[in-house]
Amino acid sequence: MKKSISIFAAFSFAVGIVVVGGTSANAHVGIDTRGTVATVGGSLTYEMRLGHGCTAADGNKYGTHVFVVAVPAAAGVPTPQAVPGYTVVVTPSAIKDASGVPVTNTVTWTAKSANDDIQINAFAEFGLRGKPLAAGVAWFDTTQICRVPKTVTAPATIKKVNGKKVTTPGKTTTTYTELLINWSVHDSAAPTVVAADGLSETGPAPSLNIAAAAAK
Ligand SMILES: [Cu+2]
């Protein structure tokens, strides 16, 4: 999102948080049904659209590497769209409702390499298909994981072994620090809140209005 510069220091004793000015909902993560009304019992294809990547505490931006969507049972069991450059897995929750149905099915798309991360200046869509089960507002808790790379180059070393010079070549290793955006607040107007450590943000979860099945 575009953050306003006005950061008012609102430190909570419990978690230590900074509240950043409210931002437009469509820049976060939204759900696009391409004009189809989500209806109980109907077949629905919808796109989870992410609007931007993560912003580190120093202001640098990083693209999304992992996109995680907890699809609520009300939206039906999801079949995920294959997205080029990404693997995808669906994990039903261990927690089940009274009728034995997992309360969520978590869909995780993971970039196959850093080159497949969503560019910081681009939006992206990750599709789902399902048959909604229950009418009302369904909230989709969604997480974006971005990675800050750190490259360390160990210099070449020369040792003498039995009077002979043995050279060990230098080695470059890349490690990553994760930045998270948790779209998990069940209030579309919720502000974006950055954690005190600057490594995670919390904002409004995307939602879907599911209509009751049409009377026959
Ligand atoms: Cu945003």
TrEMBL record:
Q: Known InterPro entries for this protein?
A: YcnI-copper_dom, YcnI-like_sf
Residue stretches making up the YncI copper-binding domain = 28-149
Q: Name one Pfam family in it.
A: DUF1775
Please identify the protein, giving its name as recorded.
Unannotated protein
